[in-house]
Design brief:
With about 500 residues, this protein is α+β, with helices and mostly antiparallel strands. The chain has a domain of about 300 residues: YVTN repeat-like/Quinoprotein amine dehydrogenase (Methylamine Dehydrogenase, Chain H), CATH 2.130.10.10. Helices cover about 20% and strands about 30% of the residues. It is built from 6 helices and 29 strands. The strands form 7 sheets. A 5-stranded mixed sheet has the order 2-3-4-5-9, with no helix packed on it. A 4-stranded antiparallel sheet has the order 1-29-28-27.
């Protein structure tokens, strides 16, 4: 995600010219490839037998499947049958072309302009024609079969992973997303527009706007037991502020399952959410924090609460992480050792453990369980910036990197990863579904993928010309107990998205 000459964190504008565009360092701080062989590559497909039971005949048979599932399956098999029928017709046409070429080559082999064509010339001519036809056959066959598989996977993925709600109101890219651990459950977003917003998950309405920072807000985390938020900023501070929210009545939502479109559509800037319609303009505003943590000499890129909520940890571009007493704002420890800027920090949900990530390709595990001494372990498992490392409830750490890999580690033996996930794009701030142990991977290429802890790919969240992220996806956050949305993502397209992931169906497909 971080490239030479550029840096994540925020920007004056969230409109990137292409998916490979990266925000600059300043933006983070201040806000933004003979003939018989050819024929053999595409064997003739058998013509469908008219008497076999097709989808229409299946309708009259008894089934214990729910009607919605049955209709979906019938539609899928109908699509597959039509694709294979088209393949069969194309195959017949290609075979006719082969016969025509055979006849023409046989005629040309006897006389060409009254002269006898020698064997070498005929062989070269036949070889050239064979090569062209072979390529055409291969291309047609691959494209058709790929379309069948893609259609099946896309429809299945959409049935399991559904877009429920879009949260639009920020005027610049959103770097972080988080969900409260207390009631009422609300969504928090941190943006390059210098604000943090709290949202009603059900209605998508902005509930609270925090404007206390004078730089990009790079992360937001909620206190484990109180209505208190912790934000980190490009203004070199972290703020702790209290909020009070009253949830509005939920409104009916559109069925996003009905949205259709191809999976890979390019977008122009005009397709991005319109920042001029500021959904946060009429919500309550908080301007002053309870306390400000000011010990860093550079951008504070992330912050998190230690278990219990009495202490907080911050990570900065000054190459240090700081541990604070929340009540007094006192600096308890300055954690040094990273050779380059830090990119993320995360705390263990039940133990006094902290993991920090850095551009120096390492992540470090800091142990504060013994009050008299804190120990540190350095882990070198990546070849590029470690964008995030997070704990699971058990003894695992999951790390993501700009080297396009995600690795799962065992805390008891961190010499080598127990699983490695290789992807096609840089990985940003990952999150793990604690109960089901599913990793959500947000990517620079606008995709979000789901994997299990053994590295098996489970799904890719749907993207089309009418739904999904239009720019780099920066962060993911699970809220597995929420009945409407159990996964949230945010990105440089200035929107956060709430998803409903059918986890039992997802794991059953695996």
């Amino acid at each position: 995600m971080v490239r030479a000459g550029g840096r994540k964190g925020s920007g004056v504008s969230a409109r990137a010219g292409s998916e490979d565009a990266r925000p600059s360092r300043e933006q983070v701080v201040f806000g933004v490839s003979g003939l018989l062989a050819a024929a053999s590559t595409c064997p003739a497909l058998p013509r469908p037998v008219p008497s076999r039971p097709g989808p229409a005949r299946l309708l009259g048979q008894d089934s214990k499947l729910p009607s919605s599932v049955r209709n979906t399956l019938l539609e899928l098999f109908g699509q597959i049958e039509r694709e294979f029928e088209n393949l069969y017709i194309e195959n017949l046409e290609l075979r006719r072309e082969i016969d025509t070429l055979n006849e023409r080559l046989a005629a040309e082999g006897q006389t060409v302009d009254g002269a006898e064509l020698n064997k070498g010339q005929l062989k070269a001519k036949a070889s050239h024609s064979t090569s062209q036809l072979s390529q055409k056959l291969k291309t047609t066959y691959k494209a058709s079969t790929s379309k069948i598989v893609s259609s099946f996977k896309t429809t299945t993925s959409r049935a399991i992973c559904q877009l429920v709600k879009e949260y639009v109101g920020h005027r610049d890219g959103i770097w972080d997303v988080s969900v409260t651990k207390t009631q009422p459950v609300v969504l928090g977003t941190a943006s390059a527009d210098h604000t943090a917003l709290l949202w009603s998950i059900e209605t998508g309405k902005c509930l609270v706007k925090y404007v206390g920072h004078v730089g990009s807000v790079n992360s937001v985390k909620f206190h484990p037991t109180e209505q208190v938020a912790l934000t980190a900023s490009g203004d070199q501070t972290a703020h702790i502020w209290r909020y009070m929210v009253q949830l509005p009545m939920p409104q009916p939502t559109a069925d996003c399952n009905q949205i259709a479109g191809e999976d890979e559509i390019e977008f122009s800037d005009k397709d991005e959410p319109d920042g001029d319609g500021d959904a946060s303009s009429d919500c309550p505003t908080i301007r002053v924090p309870l306390t400000s943590l000011k010990s860093h000499q550079g951008v504070v890129i992330a912050a998190d609460w230690l278990v219990g909520g009495k202490q907080a940890v911050t990570a900065s571009w000054d190459r240090t992480a700081n541990l604070y007493e929340v009540e007094t704002s006192e600096l308890v420890h300055s954690l040094t050792g990273h050779d380059q800027e830090l990119t993320h920090c995360c705390t263990h949900p039940t133990q006094r453990l902290v993991v920090t990530s850095s551009r120096d390709t390492t992540f470090r595990l800091w142990d504060f369980r013994d009050p008299s001494i804190h120990s540190v372990n350095v882990f070198q498992g990546h070849t590029d910036t470690v964008t995030s490392a997070v704990f699971t409830v058990g003894d695992n750490v999951v790390s993501g990197s700009d080297d396009r890999t995600v690795k799962v580690w065992d805390l008891k033996n961190m010499r080598s990863p127990i699983a490695t996930i290789r992807t096609d794009s840089a990985v940003n701030r990952i999150n793990v579904c604690v109960g089901q142990r599913i990793i959500a991977l947000p990517h620079d290429n606008r995709q979000v993928r789901l994997f299990d802890m053994s590295g098996v790919r489970l799904a890719r969240l749907p993207r089309s010309n009418r739904q999904g992220h239009r720019r780099m996806v920066c962060c993911s956050a699970w809220s597995e107990d929420h009945p409407i949305c159990n996964l949230f993502t945010c990105g440089f397209d200035r929107q956060a998205i709430g998803w409903n992931i059918n986890i039992p169906a997802l794991l059953q497909e695996k």
